[in-house]
Model the fold of this input.
Amino acid sequence: MKTELIISNLGYPRIGENREWKKALESFWAGKLEEEAFRAEMDRIQLELLKVQQAKGVDLIPVGDFTLYDHMLDMAVMFGVVPERYRHEGGPVPLSVYFAMARGNAQATACEMTKWFNTNYHYIVPEIGGIVPRLTVNKPLEAYRFAKNRAGIEGKPVVVGLFTFLKLSKGFEAGRLAEKIEQFLPVYIQMLTELEREGVQWVQIDEPYLATNVTADEWKLVEHLYRRIREQTAGLRIMLQTYFEGVDDFEKITSLSVDGIGLDFVHDGGKNAKALEQSGWPEDKVLGAGLIDGRNIWRADLDAKLEAIRRIAAVVPLERLILQPSCSLLHVPVSTRAESGLDPVVRGALAFAEEKLDELRILRAAVRQGEQAVEAELAASREALNAFRLLPERNREDIASGLRQLADIPDSRNRPFSERFELQRNKWQLPPLPTTTIGSFPQTPEVRQARLKWRRGEWNDAQYEAFMKEQIEACIRLQEEIGIDVLVHGEFERTDMVEYFGEKLDGFVFTRNGWVQSYGSRCVKPPVIYADVAFVQPMTVKESVYAQSLTDRPVKGMLTGPITILNWSFVRDDLSREQVANQIALALRQEVLALEKAGIEMIQVDEPALREGLPLKREDQDAYLQWAVKAFRLAASGVKDTTQIHTHMCYCEFHDMIDAIRSLDADVISIESSRSHGELISSFEQHDYDHGIGLGVYDIHSPRVPSVEEMSDMIDRALRVLRPELFWINPDCGLKTRGLAETVPALRNMVQAAQAARAQHFQRA
Ligand code: GLN
Ligand code: ZN
Done:
């Protein structure tokens, strides 16, 4: 069989094997690196990343995916989409303006940042406004030349498609999308024409928006857009790349005027493969088959992948087939090389970016030369996966039987909220409009140093524990002195709200170097859920009980909810996410009950990441919310009716999930609202919320101390739509990243605002 099968990559992690990229950025921002040295270091990193992909034998290496901050910001700046407030003199956009857009400066606030589809990557939202687009620089062209001159690589420039770019931008009415496309198109085409003139072979145009719910009108715009591009850049081969979901309208996408279409065959729920088999593939197009999971860290089952290739190749001839990851590898860590601390079986089951490129290479060889040519590698992969599958901790009978009996475990409280409300009111005797905080108090350098000393072994457990007790005591005294009604212990023992629980539950491992970019220079190292999740012993009881022993006021127990733990981890993919969520929920249920048994009868189960797992397609969202809510309730609802369950979420896009939030059936929820300028409040005008609720009255993301009047104003506005008996007064989120200097006066003002509101709404202070 004569074959031309090639492999392509869609994007590569920028951060470098040891986060060199992050370090360079932060040194530059701190003024420790001059611009020239900074640029030289970034060039060095970029070159290195290209060479890794070259060494792995990737046929089509992406260029232009590398960035100094974010690829959407790059697109905005390339087209001159720079808001007025960063005024600069025409010409290329200076680095100072570029970073001001990302991070703000003394004169101007940063552009908004938001999640890139359903990933944990965040992009800078372009503000289109009345800007007249112009080509300030041809970034993909520069990247193409860089790869060619410095490494002899014939790169594949990657750009965000104009449709996706504009759909993700703000500053114009949705009804004016067609007009905006018209306005940007000449500049977009100019960029592509320059690539064509340079002799570029393939361009990858990312249109992930086409894998969401696209309307008929939008498809018309997309057809028009790509027809226009084709008319003027006939010599350029365009690979239209989608990812993160299947494409609903297969007929439409396959008849666009492009040379190739990239489809995600991993995160599409099987839709793309099915459509391909049913509808066939047009003879004039190449298929980019995204078969290697670009979003998770597990080694691929290469036998299954070869089988998938065979099925695809029955429809699309191999010379028109390109093997590739399902999306950019931006979403996985760089290499497993540093993970010698892990159990070899677990380590053997991992494939980060570099290892994924190896998998593509092996698959290409297996197809081109036959499986015997890579027999040893196939066998090694098979063996690694088998050993992993057989690990006893992934096949626990106690956990499996727990899940089988799920239906017998009550996931609701004994009585409805209205009855619990009365019982709890009598039990707790709180003042009206009670004040509380979200959980963490400022983690001072002292706290971080103590943890470091303990981790390094310079302090023994007793020393560390004594230190923690001092911190808790000081925190309790401070809250009492400020006059807060419901106290917290301060969470000094936690670095991260997921890691803390992951380290104490069964089923998790932690990598040494498994960093991925979250936004800008911020990287996260998600825990890895590799096995069955199970409760081992109480995780938060000691701290909470100690805190409660110091005061007569109630202290809330504090834990992270099952969905947040799930959504902020890399998760095993042999079980459904729902099953894993239920495992976590059952483990946390035991923690909740252990707290209650120890006398902690106000318990907060945080779910700040509930919304992050929301599927891209509207039709899948209800099912997700249903099992997510169920998992929360499994964790939280085993308690007595007098025990008060709190939860916390920190975002304001609420209107579309208010029903789900109500069905969590938490006695009290605290949510962000101060940054959303009353949007949240107005959504409560339309939806009646009938459980306890605290809308954050000040923004903890800023060091600014809000005045009593400001907070009073927030409270008054909220009380116009929410019942005063149900209302709580609290900040937006945990205080961990704040300093005491601003936290103490802000909390004092908050308590004063609460007193004023009581006097006003309840006739007595
Ligand atoms: N209880 C946590 C804290 O206060 C909640 C953090 C969060 O919402 N992200 O830090
Ligand atoms: Zn929060």
